[in-house]
């Protein structure tokens, strides 16, 4: 079952990559892509979450623009395409597609009915919005972009939320972090970790800013957080 078809709430369908755990039923986990589509990095992450015991599903959130995007962060042309897709992406529709994906995985016979989300970069922003706008049971953001412009939605968060922030994130400058980090630190359902000296995508294996020690620390915190809240 490498792919499933998900029905969008406003019509149409889109594809999602699925990885199954060794034992079912198991909690579900929506894995939210970066700006490079459902590429090998995201498929490997989805597989790794399945290995941790989740029915892991990674939807194609760019389907409304261009279905099946699968590019890397290795060339300038791919970066340009990724930023073009990011510029065309409708965040509100994206959240609705993620909620449809959440509903889909909860409805799968292999799923216990509990389900959360974890997202990276653009996906980190969307995981924050899943915490604010959906009934997802737990949500994790890795270096989410644009949270400073949506911090007024933090009051709607009622389920556990974990945010990994890169101190020297080139896409989330200090003035942006100053707007959302203190708010989340005071939120009773939120946990924030700031990774000193790290840049954007420090957990992307093979990426320019990959840092194994920080990635291992963040991933361990995510593993414990999900186990505590979805298990």
UniProtKB/TrEMBL annotation:
Q: Which Gene3D superfamilies match?
A: alpha/beta hydrolase (3.40.50.1820)
Write out the GO MF terms. Answer: hydrolase activity
Highest taxon of source: Bacteria
Query: Residues in domain Dienelactone hydrolase?
Result: 14-228
> Matching InterPro entries, A to Z?
AB_hydrolase_fold, Dienelactn_hydro, Dienelactone_hydrolase-like
Listed Pfam families: DLH (PF01738)
Provide the transmembrane region boundaries.
Answer: none
Q: What is this protein called?
A: Carboxymethylenebutenolidase
